[in-house]
Q: What sequence folds into this?
């Protein structure tokens, strides 16, 4: 597959994984570590794939962008990655969404590029999701200011960045995109499983059940 030359993909993998009890990136799912699934999702969408987070052991999987400041959460990883890349667009995918299809990642990126949106996210069942997110590198000053302030989470920072660039966040409705055929239904678990965060052992069991159900339907 030809890789895009104006966009990069980053797996956010710098969390503490306290609920899982071990580092999530290495947790096996369908015979492979979660980080492998996330990197493959980005690459299948035509993106180069790096890891945002100061986990040196992950260098065996892909290039790692070290956090400029340690222990600043996902927003810290995002700011570090945006400062590191020279490409206009960056898509950020958490390491704990193994059932998210690459077709949705590609569609989200296409939507951002089509409208030159500073911040593009998806909505499922009427609710906007924080991740995955496509960010224009121009959003970095506002994201960095939000990180420095220590107030609010990632979505609040995204809102501030979009407003700073005199835009609104572009929210892509997944169900509407599927209904109108703009997003093809992939051979992947149903949409209610796509955004299942594998944060704890019970979440891993749910994800495995989703995958098993889909394999039985094929």
A:
């Amino acid at each position: 597959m030809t890789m895009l030359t104006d966009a990069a993909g980053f797996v956010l993998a710098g969390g503490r994984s306290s609920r899982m009890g071990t580092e999530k990136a290495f947790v096996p799912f369908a015979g492979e570590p979660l980080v492998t699934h996330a990197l493959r999702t980005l690459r299948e969408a035509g993106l180069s794939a790096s890891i945002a987070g100061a986990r040196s052991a992950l260098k065996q999987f892909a290039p790692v962008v070290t956090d400029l400041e340690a222990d600043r959460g996902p927003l810290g990883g995002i700011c570090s990655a945006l400062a590191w890349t020279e490409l206009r667009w960056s898509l950020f995918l958490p390491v704990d969404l193994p059932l998210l299809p690459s077709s949705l990642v590609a569609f989200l990126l296409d939507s951002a590029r089509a409208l030159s949106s500073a911040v593009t996210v998806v909505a499922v069942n009427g609710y906007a999701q924080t991740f995955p997110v496509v960010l224009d590198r121009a959003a970095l000053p506002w994201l960095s200011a939000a990180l420095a302030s220590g107030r609010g989470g990632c979505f609040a920072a995204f809102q501030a960045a979009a407003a700073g660039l005199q835009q609104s966040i572009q929210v892509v409705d997944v169900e509407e995109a599927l209904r109108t055929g703009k997003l093809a239904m992939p051979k992947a678990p149903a949409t209610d499983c796509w955004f299942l965060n594998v944060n704890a052992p019970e979440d891993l069991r749910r994800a495995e059940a989703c995958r098993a159900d889909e394999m039985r339907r094929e």
Remarks:
- Helices lie at 34-44, 73-84, 102-115, 140-149, 154-164, 174-179, 191-194, 201-217.
- The chain has one domain: 7-217.
- The domain at 7-217 is CATH 3.90.550.10 (Spore Coat Polysaccharide Biosynthesis Protein SpsA; Chain A).
- The radius of gyration is 16 Å.
